[in-house]
Each structure stands twice: as structure tokens, then as C-alpha cells.
Amino acid sequence: MGYKLKGPPVTPTQDGIISEAIAFGSVQIPKDGQPIVLLKERQTIGGYPKIGTVLPIDCFNLAQAAIGSSVKFEAIGIAEAQDIMTKARISF
User: Fold this and answer.
1) Where is 16: in which H helix or E strand?
2) Phi then psi for 76, rounded to 5 degrees?
């Protein structure tokens, strides 16, 4: 369903949101501040603030990561994300 990360808490700028659709790879921030990357079997809607989306190709790698592994996020633009996904031959 999701991959819960552990580290310094992330504090969203808003307390909650109206429930909305959840995309594969969405990064939600629950009240405890520990991000959850939502994977293939995620819920269909949710109300936690979202701070971004992990590329599907990276979600597959994340799902295989061992407990205790380090994870680093890097912000990229839409054009770069589309280029990466096209080169990986994964539809989006």
C-alpha cells in the first residue's frame, strides 16, 4: 500500500485537506510528520497534505529497498520527469 519513511518530521504548511484522488507515488504527510510514499495498492482518496510525487520507476526501486535504507529526494520538473519515464519506457 505504501512505504513509510522515518527521519526528521516534515511539517506541512496546512493541517489537512479535503479528500482527493491519490496518484501512484504520491508523498503524503500524516500528523506525525513521517512521509508515506503511496504505492500500487494505495487507497483511492485521502486527506493528508501531499508534498510531491515519486516517479513510478523510482517507486518500484523504493518498494524493493531494505528496511533502514537511506532515501534521498530530488526535485525535478515535469519535462525532465517525462523524459525519464519515456527513456524507461513506462507510460504515465
Assistant:
1) none
2) -135, 160
Per-residue model confidence as pLDDT tens digits over 22-31: 899 999 999 8
Cα separation of 6 and 60, whole Å?
19
Q: Which fold does the domain 2-88 belong to in CATH?
A: Cyclophilin (2.40.100)
Quote the cell numbers at residue 43.
487507497
**Dihedrals phi, psi of 38, to nearest 5 degrees:** -85, 130
Q: Shortest CA distance to 58 belongs to which of 76, 43, 44, 42?
A: 76
CA 1 to chain centre: 11
Q: Which residues of 7-17 are buried (b: 16+ CB within 10 A; e: fewer)?
A: eeeeebeeeee
Write the pLDDT tens digit of every residue in 71-92: 999 999 999 999 998 988 765 5
